[in-house]
């Protein structure tokens, strides 16, 4: 009797306490103690969709060696010639296409995240086949535009997919897997691009989306997307598959369902659809993510991806410029791996701050070296007397910048797109932030040559250094920490309460 009475009293006390804890805590308590095994299927699903960023990395790494090949008459075999301005259009049109792709992808994601990936994978292969078979600058530019449009849909959707399927403990790590696969793709293109010409390299890139297409048939749609479209049974099956056959998903499923309904009632009962888009739940995440995307694009990262070989030809006197591009890609890969290990332990904000400081120093250093080369090279014989002895300076600056960029702002700005937007706005918000990002990228890549003509290579990178300092201030003042939080469909009041509250 005493033992039963003690159990009853204890049960009442625990029950009282359970009513006071948040849904997030309740879900964490209900997850099995063997939680690491339940991550296995989430990792499989993330690896499957990460073939999309892998294909994107191949295409991003393609531009630098391909442009150098197109401008080399020996590699181009006299098919057509490409001027510097035409090369800037070929590189930047992929970003302009991505701007359009972000808008279209945001609308298409309402039909399902997995469905968008299936629908875009094979057409992306066709775009690269068209690139390989191009017979003129106009044809290759059109293929670049179409490819950029499709890969933006793929990249944006994979980030949202991973954010929605992953539990908070591994969400940042799985998001970094997307960046890691992208960096591997860049490294492969840089490495093989040193030996293949532009159309042979395009054929290699065309094979990657085929792998993505077939991998998608082995993973489910995200539970959140299914519930949002009213597919209750399919959502339950999807969540059960992701969490494991032994996991108790009832509380998590009920919480997602409840908050979706609450969000719909809030938006329907308090404001019109247009005014809902201007609410704090939408505008604050848009301002934060678009701000990060602006700084990500205007700190010089695109130049090191699209024009790495050309930049190293101008600053490295004896070292192979392809070797410098490959070293940069290796540094990106290692930094992305390190970011994946740290992002869920250290947090988003510390990595963003470290990234901002290191990028500012590296960009200022590269600009200073370019100034020394440009101004003093013809008035001193130090450089001539020791050819190549200073090659390590620009290479070190580029490697430092690359590590800082891949450690912080590159993976985290993409991760925050999935974390900050409420579920009902995630498609629209992702489209806005991603399209804005690629619009900034287009402007940056297209105008870089013009800026360089007016203010010099050193002025261009000093400008990037100043923008990087502003990025650091923006992070300190406005970006919230999201480490360990359930995505907001578990707590619909979270995004509305975003503010500068460290």
UniProtKB/TrEMBL annotation:
Stored Pfam families: Sugar_tr
PANTHER family xref list: FACILITATED TREHALOSE TRANSPORTER TRET1-2 HOMOLOG-LIKE PROTEIN, PTHR48021
Name of the protein in question: Major facilitator superfamily (MFS) profile domain-containing protein
Compartment(s) where it occurs, according to its Swiss-Prot or TrEMBL record: Cell membrane
Gene Ontology MF term list: transmembrane transporter activity
Keywords associated with the record: Cell membrane, Glycoprotein, Membrane, Sugar transport, Transmembrane, Transmembrane helix, Transport
Transmembrane annotation, as ranges: 43-67, 87-109, 116-133, 139-162, 174-192, 198-219, 285-304, 350-372, 392-417, 455-479
Cellular component annotations (GO), alphabetically ordered: plasma membrane
InterPro entries linked: MFS_dom (IPR020846), MFS_sugar_transport-like (IPR005828), MFS_trans_sf (IPR036259), MFS_Trehalose_Transporter (IPR050549), Sugar/inositol_transpt (IPR003663)
Positions of the Major facilitator superfamily (MFS) profile domain: 45-483
UniProt topology in membrane: Multi-pass membrane protein
């Amino acid at each position: 009797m005493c033992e039963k009475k003690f159990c009853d009293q204890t049960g009442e006390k625990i029950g009282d306490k359970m009513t006071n804890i948040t849904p997030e805590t309740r879900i964490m308590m209900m997850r099995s103690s063997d939680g690491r095994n339940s991550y296995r299927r989430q990792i499989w699903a993330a690896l499957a969709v990460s073939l999309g960023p892998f294909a994107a990395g191949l295409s991003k790494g393609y531009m630098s060696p391909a442009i150098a090949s197109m401008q080399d008459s020996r590699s181009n075999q006299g098919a057509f010639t490409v001027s510097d301005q035409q090369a800037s259009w070929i590189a930047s049109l992929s970003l302009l296409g991505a701007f359009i792709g972000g808008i279209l992808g945001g609308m298409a994601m309402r039909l399902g995240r997995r469905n968008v990936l299936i629908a875009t994978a094979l057409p992306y292969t066709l775009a690269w086949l068209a690139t390989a078979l191009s017979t003129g600058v106009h044809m290759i530019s059109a293929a670049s535009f179409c490819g950029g449009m499709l890969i933006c849909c793929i990249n944006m959707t994979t980030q949202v997919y991973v954010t929605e399927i992953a539990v908070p403990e591994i969400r940042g790590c799985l998001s970094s897997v997307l960046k890691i696969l992208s960096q591997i793709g860049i490294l492969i293109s840089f490495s093989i691009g040193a030996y293949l010409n532009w159309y042979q390299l395009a054929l290699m890139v065309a094979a990657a989306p085929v792998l993505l297409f077939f991998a998608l048939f082995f993973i489910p749609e995200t539970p959140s997307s299914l519930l949002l479209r009213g597919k209750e049974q399919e959502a339950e099956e999807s969540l059960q598959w992701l969490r494991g056959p032994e996991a108790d998903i009832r509380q998590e499923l009920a919480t997602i369902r409840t908050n979706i309904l609450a969000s719909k009632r809030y938006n329907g009962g308090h404001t019109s659809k247009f005014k809902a888009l201007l609410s704090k739940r939408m505008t604050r995440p848009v301002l934060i993510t678009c701000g990060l995307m602006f700084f990500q694009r205007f700190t010089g990262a695109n130049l090191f991806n699209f024009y790495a070989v050309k930049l190293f030809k101008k600053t490295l006197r004896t070292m192979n410029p392809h070797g410098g591009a490959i070293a940069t890609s290796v540094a990106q890969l290692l930094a992305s791996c390190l970011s994946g290990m740290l992002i869920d332990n250290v947090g988003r904000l510390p990595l963003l701050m470290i990234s901002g400081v290191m990028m500012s120093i590296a960009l200022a250093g590269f600009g200073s070296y370019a100034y020394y080369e440009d101004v003093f090279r013809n008035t001193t014989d130090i450089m001539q007397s020791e050819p190549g002895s200073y090659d390590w300076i620009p290479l070190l600056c580029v490697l430092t910048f690359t590590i800082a960029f891949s450690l912080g702002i590159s993976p985290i700005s993409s991760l925050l797109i999935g974390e900050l937007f409420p579920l009902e706005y995630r498609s629209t918000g992702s489209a806005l932030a991603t399209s804005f990002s690629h619009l900034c990228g287009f402007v940056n890549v297209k105008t870089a040559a013009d800026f360089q003509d007016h203010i010099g290579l050193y002025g261009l990178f000093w400008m990037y250094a100043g923008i990087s300092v502003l990025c650091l201030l923006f992070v300190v003042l406005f970006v919230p920490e999201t480490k360990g939080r359930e995505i907001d469909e578990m707590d619909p009041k979270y995004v509305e309460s975003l503010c500068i509250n460290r």
